[in-house]
Amino acid sequence: MLKTILSISGKPGLYKLVSSAKNMIIVESLIDKKRLPIYAKDKVVSLGDIAMYTSEGEEPLKNVLGNIKKKENGGKTSIAPNSKPEELYNYFGEVLPDFDKDKVYPTDIKKLLSWYNLLIDSEVDFEKDETADAAGEKEGEEKTVPAEAAAEPKKAAPKASRAKANATPKASSDAKTSQRSTRKKV
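Predicted structure:
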């Protein structure tokens, strides 16, 4: 589920992917449910692609959010995102004990806590399995394709020379022609 939740640089909050087009995507804000287009020039990051640094490597954001949910029993965080850096580090140490204190900054923890609270308020199930969702969507897409459309290929359009030969003349000899002058009056 986190693959469809996006963070957009320069815009507050999180956004849910609604649709995508050739040169833009349509997103819906989790805060006020307004939809807006996001173009290729905007920096967009999926929460499924984010990880937190640990002493051994990286921990996916899905696991970190799951740890926070276990600690808070499914509710909002007990600490405010705008707390002092020492308090943030202590709280995050309880959630992810082996996080790298040199690479994880207080601003990262603030952003993570505000994202978690926003996901809880929006009732987004971020612990849902991504691969099961993708397989379900693919199966659903295959079932909705009509059999006639899949079985019969489209016919090519007639060539221009044939189209001209088959076309009816625009004006017949019986039609009135306009006698109007196109000369400018001076």
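Summary: The first strand starts at residue 5 and ends at 8.
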